């Protein structure tokens, strides 16, 4: 049995893809830039600042950190405005409720804190987590393991005693680099085949998969 379970947010617990894409596109429109939807989707999980830097570089624009900050603020504002369009994935609430009081639970998201906290509160699941870390708490983006290691530290849990839930290849790489186990879900933009390359310990299509409880607790749990 694991002592702590760490969750990614975007694409793992909640379907935020459309809101993220729209918020990025609206922010970029203000500096007369446009990128394909799939470009943004494939970068969900590394953090807005890093994504904006990549986009500016690709467009041969100077990477001005003041501009990056303004873009992130605009993106976050739009995403909060679109909060009603964000839905928890099937089984997310039930899984969090099942874990409550049995293991330590942390959220480790590369999204901005204002966005994450707003979404957690309107979905009434903020209290499901013992600690919540967002992009502001780290210096390095996934696939660097920093956010998972800091979350484990906050929970006073050893990395080897943690299991991470992730939907992106960046997240799986970060979890494995942190020395943690990883359950990968195919609810994001990455296929089962793409995720399998990073060697997660378990791949599931839904958070309702009964193998999740068996993996975490070592026995079958009825929901």
Structural descriptors:
six-stranded parallel β-sheet; about 220 residues; Rossmann fold; 2 domains; 10 helices; about 45% helix; DNA polymerase, domain 1; about 15% strand; alpha/beta
Break the fold down into its secondary structure elements and pairings.
Elements: E1 4-7, E2 14-15, H1 17-29, H2 37-41, H3 48-58, H4 65-81, E3 87-88, H5 92-99, E4 104-108, H6 113-122, E5 131-133, H7 146-155, E6 162-166, H8 169-177, E7 181-185, H9 192-197, E8 202-204, H10 211-217
Parallel strand pairs: 1-4, 1-6, 4-5, 6-7, 7-8
Antiparallel strand pairs: 2-3
Helix pairs in contact: 1-4, 3-4, 4-6
- The CATH superfamily label of the largest domain reads HAD superfamily/HAD-like
Helix content: 40-55%
Poorly predicted sequence stretches spanning 5 or more consecutive residues = none
Structure summary, number of beta strands: 8
Number of domains: 2
CATH class of the largest domain: Alpha Beta
CATH topology of the largest domain: Rossmann fold
Distance between the terminal alpha carbons, to the nearest Å?
18 Å
Per CATH, the architecture of the largest domain is: 3-Layer(aba) Sandwich
Q: Give, in order, the helices and strands.
A: EEHHHHEHEHEHEHEHEH
Architecture overview:
This protein is an alpha/beta fold and 223 residues long. It has two domains: 4-15 and 86-217, Rossmann fold; 17-84, DNA polymerase, domain 1 (Orthogonal Bundle). Helices cover 43% and strands 13% of the residues. It has ten helices and eight strands. The chain has helices at residues 17-29, 37-41, 48-58, 65-81, 92-99, 113-122, 146-155, 169-177, 192-197, 211-217; strands at residues 4-7, 14-15, 87-88, 104-108, 131-133, 162-166, 181-185, 202-204. The strands form two sheets. A six-stranded parallel beta sheet has the order 5-4-1-6-7-8, with helices on both faces. It has a two-stranded antiparallel ribbon with strand order 2-3. Helix 6 links the parallel strand 4 and strand 5 (131-133). It is globular, with a radius of gyration of 17 Å. The mean pLDDT is 95.
């Amino acid at each position: 049995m694991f002592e702590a379970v760490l969750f990614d947010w975007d694409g793992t617990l909640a379907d935020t893809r459309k809101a993220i894409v729209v918020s990025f596109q609206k922010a970029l429109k203000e500096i007369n830039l446009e990128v394909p939807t799939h470009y943004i989707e494939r970068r969900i999980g590394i953090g807005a600042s890093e994504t904006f830097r990549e986009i500016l570089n690709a467009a041969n624009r100077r990477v001005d950190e003041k501009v990056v900050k303004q873009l992130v603020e605009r993106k976050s504002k739009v995403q909060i405005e679109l909060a009603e369009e964000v839905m928890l994935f099937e089984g997310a609430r039930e899984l969090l409720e099942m874990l409550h009081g049995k293991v330590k639970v942390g959220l480790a998201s590369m999204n901005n804190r204002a966005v994450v906290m707003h979404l957690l509160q309107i979905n009434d699941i903020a209290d499901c987590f013992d600690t919540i870390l967002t992009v502001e708490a780290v210096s390095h983006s996934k696939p660097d393991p920093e956010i998972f290691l800091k979350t484990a530290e906050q929970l006073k849990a050893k990395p080897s005693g943690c299991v991470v839930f992730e939907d992106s290849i960046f997240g799986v790489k970060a979890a494995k680099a942190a020395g943690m186990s990883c359950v990968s879900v195919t609810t994001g933009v990455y296929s089962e085949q793409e995720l399998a390359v990073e060697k997660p310990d378990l791949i599931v299509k839904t958070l309702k998969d009964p193998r999740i409880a068996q993996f975490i607790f070592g026995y079958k749990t009825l929901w």
